[in-house]
Design brief:
The protein is about 5% helix and about 65% strand. It contains one helix and twelve strands, in the order H-E-E-E-E-E-E-E-E-E-E-E-E.
Length: about 220
């Protein structure tokens, strides 16, 4: 049990922590810039995001999601997450619901999400996790935009984590997109991490991208 608790604490320190809640009184702040090969001259060449979440109680995590998305749309969303159906598979399978509200390109927006995840020992003393995050974004006068991200992660060493993410979604009036985005997370010192990532479009997405990020746990 102590080993499982330690694993879950490590998982909860990941950015966009999927279904794992933040421990009460702790938080996470991340900032990233992604540079990519635009599909057309009208598309942006980079976008920035800032993400903050904080464990208010054992069951409620509050957060802010600010910046731009991969379409260059500005967003500002405040959200809350809470776990659902605790105790599945001996508490190894986590499910959480998310509800948020804010603005997307000057339009009022609501965001609803359902996230699933499981973590544990992968090989010898190395731990890993899998998370599936699904969100629907509703804006005034428009059909919802759906995103679905599947993440595989591995704690390769005490200071290094490896992540591979399959990002996909559907925007009203546009074809569905998909991209593969691996990242390396390196702990510079306790509570401080650097992220180095690359991505490749699989369907109706940019050919490649490069991501640089900073994480801070508090």
């Amino acid at each position: 049990m102590a080993r499982l608790i330690l694993i879950l604490i490590c998982l909860s320190s990941m950015a966009h922590a999927g279904p794992w809640p933040r421990p009460p009184g702790t938080g996470h702040l991340s900032f990233s810039t992604t540079y990519f090969d635009a599909k057309t001259y009208a598309d942006p060449l980079s976008f920035n995001t800032l993400y903050l979440d904080y464990g208010l109680t054992e069951r409620i995590t509050l957060g802010l999601d600010l910046g731009q998305n991969d379409l260059g749309e500005y967003k500002a969303i405040a959200f809350a997450k809470t776990p659902l159906m605790a105790g599945l598979l001996g508490d190894r399978l986590r499910i959480s619901a998310e509800l948020g509200a804010g603005m997307v390109i000057n339009r009022e927006a609501l965001r609803a999400g359902l996230h699933l995840g499981r973590g544990g020992r992968v090989w010898r003393e190395k731990t890993g996790w899998i998370a599936w995050e699904n969100r629907a974004i509703f804006t005034t006068g428009h059909r919802p935009r759906i995103t679905s991200d599947l993440t595989l992660g591995l704690t390769a060493s005490p200071r290094t984590k490896l992540i591979v993410q399959l990002q996909s979604g559907v925007t009203p009036g546009e074809p569905a997109y998909a991209r593969l985005a691996p990242s390396l997370i390196w702990q510079r010192k306790p509570g401080h991490h650097l992220e180095f990532g690359v991505g490749a479009g699989l369907h109706d997405a940019e050919r490649y991208n490069i991501k640089l990020g900073i994480w801070r746990d508090f």
